[in-house]
Amino acid sequence: MADVRTYTLIYVVLLVLGTAKFVFFEIDIPESMAIGATMVLAVVKSLLIAGYYQHLREEPRSITYMMLIAVFMVFLLTVAAGYSIQ
């Protein structure tokens, strides 16, 4: 199990990434680039939260693979729902 220092470091990184997402839309860059960078930061934040706060780093790899399959299925469902709305 991770110690308090690790959790504090992850918290600070999440705080910086959250602030960076705000800054992307405030600086003078194209909106599509800001949206893309925000999506990348969201994935990084999700991986940090799942890995450390939900303790997936300490679980057997089979559980990690099961979670990845579930996330992929949710992505497919989202794409299908978006396609059916059009």
Can you describe what's shown?
There is one protein chain. With 86 residues, the chain is an all-alpha fold. It has two domains: 1-54; 60-86. It has three helices and no strands. It is flat, with a radius of gyration of 16 Å. Its main location: membrane. InterPro entries: Cyt_c_oxidase_su4_prok. This is Cytochrome C oxidase subunit IV. It is a multi-pass membrane protein.
Count of extended strands? 0
- Biggest sheet features: none
Overall geometric form: flat
Mean pLDDT: 89
C-alpha termini separation: 46 Å
Helical residues, percent: over 70%
Radius of gyration: 16 Å
Determine the oligomeric state from the structure: single chain
The share of residues in extended strands comes to under 5%
Unreliable segments of 5+ consecutive residues:
none
H/E element order: HHH
- Count of alpha and pi helical runs: 3
Number of domains: 2
Q: Which secondary-structure class do the elements indicate? A: mainly alpha
Keywords:
single chain; 86 residues; mainly alpha; 2 domains; 3 helices; 83% helix; flat; cell membrane
Describe the protein's topology:
Layout (H helix, E strand, L loop, with lengths): L3 H23 L4 H23 L7 H25 L1
Helix pairs in contact: 1-2
Protein name: Cytochrome C oxidase subunit IV
Keywords: Cell membrane, Membrane, Transmembrane, Transmembrane helix
Main location: membrane
Short note summarizing the structure:
This protein has about 90 residues and is mainly α. It has 3 helices and no strands.
